Each structure stands twice: as C-alpha cells, then as structure tokens.
Amino acid sequence: LFVECACRELLYLARATEQAALRARTPREYTHALAETVTASDSVAFFAEALTLTRRRQDLAPLVERTIERLHSEGARAYASQVARHGWRSLRAPDESSRRFWAVAIGVILEGYAMGRSPEALCAEMLRVLGEQAKSTGEATRLRLVDDAASNSNEEG
Question: Which whole number is the average pLDDT over 6-11?
Fold first, then answer.
C-alpha cells in the first residue's frame, strides 16, 4: 500500500508540475517552474523510500516500473508540447530531457533531505545541475549573430 501511494503521489506531483510550467513563456521560466514545484513537495522523497522497499519486495517492481515509464513519457509529451507551442529549440530530445529532469530531481532531493536543505536550496541546486534546457527563438537568433560575427572576425584576422 505504501508503494502504491508513493507512486500515485509522484504522478500527481508530475501533473502539478506540468500545470505550473504551462504559464512559462521562456525556457528558463519553464525549468524554474518545474524545479520549484518538484522541490516544494515531499512526493519525490516519499517515492524514493518506496524504491528502497521495492528492492526487498520484487513483487512491487512492476508498479514502480510502470510509474517511472509513465513519468518519463508524460514528461516528454509535456516538454515537446511546450517546445512546439513556443517555438523553442531544445538542446536534447524530449525523452532525454524528461529522464534527465527526473533523475536530477530524485538525486538532488534525496541528497538535500539527508543534509537538511530547504526547498529553496533544493530548487537552486536543481537549476544549477540542470542548466539550460532549450533556447527561445529570439535567443537562438541572437546567438547565431554573435557566432557569425566571431567567425567573420576570425577569418579576417
């Protein structure tokens, strides 16, 4: 029952995270909304406890596996939708971004809980480790102009 509750709570958190990120207009706002929502909840730590129980109770492994698969597939879908909606240029495939986000979230939150860190500190650490996920159309254009200018000056020199 504990593992089932933990899995359900994590999926509820994933939905809440997706909802919070819908208001983002830039990739940076999007990543911040995700990290802030995930670190404000105990659901990831609760799920991590369920993972350790599953190690001793292999009959629970299929439930955990389905939860993780759904977490990744829904995360990839949500991220791909945001990228398409805003015209961002993703630095990774949506599936990679989703898997990376949740792996970082679980790791940072577990470490942070062990060290007694605040949700704000956990969020800051997640943002630091995740780094940039995508570029907005305007950012990509500006970067290309800088790159073009730099390569022109190198050719002249």
Answer: 96
